[in-house]
Design brief:
The protein has helices spanning about 25, 40-55, 65-80, 85-90, 95-110, 130-155, and strands at about 85, 110-115, 125-130. By secondary structure, it is mainly α.
Length: about 170
């Protein structure tokens, strides 16, 4: 299957980015109570890898504010830190108006929860819903298993080089 002749990445801009209707799939994932403890450094590494990609490709080519915000909120949850709307907009790596549109959509879909700051009525925090956190934890656990299996298939590295596949 070749590239879509209708798709032109040069025509993309932040105003064309609209919240996905596909978040229902994440909400339908069953919670996995046996997922164990997730290391926040893993989530931060994933976020860092996503930012690293921007040094090699145009940042707007891979704009995915919903995923960036999900990862940021999951890392914050693991670290026990609250995230203000303004901070989440920065984490989304898109224009603030686009980030706010995504935040509203993800709240409407039940992935995010708005929490008023009890000390400052002007500020609102955003958190992952329990179900979204459980689904993301299950996803990252499954991703870890895939990575472990890939390491086993490739074999140990020798002399700084990855081993050959059997």
């Amino acid at each position: 299957m070749g590239p879509d002749p209708q798709f032109d990445p040069q025509q993309m801009d932040e105003s064309s980015a609209t919240p996905s209707q596909g978040a229902d799939a994440m909400l339908s994932a069953p919670p996995d109570p046996a997922q164990g403890h997730m290391d926040p450094t893993l989530v931060c590494s994933i976020i860092g890898a996503r930012r690293l990609r921007d040094h090699f490709f145009r940042a707007d080519l891979f704009a995915d504010p919903a995923w960036d915000m999900l990862l940021d909120l999951y890392a914050a949850r693991l670290e026990g830190v609250q995230v203000a709307v303004a901070s989440l907009c920065i984490a989304a790596a898109v224009a603030p108006t686009t980030a706010l549109r995504w935040i509203k959509a993800l709240c409407d879909q039940g992935l995010f929860v708005r929490v008023a700051d009890p000390e400052d009525g002007r500020r609102v925090f955003i958190e992952l819903s329990d179900h979204a956190a459980s689904a993301l934890g299950a996803y990252l656990t499954a991703l870890g298993r895939i990575s472990e299996n890939a390491d086993l298939a490739i074999g140990p590295a020798s002399d700084g080089e990855a081993g050959a596949r059997a």
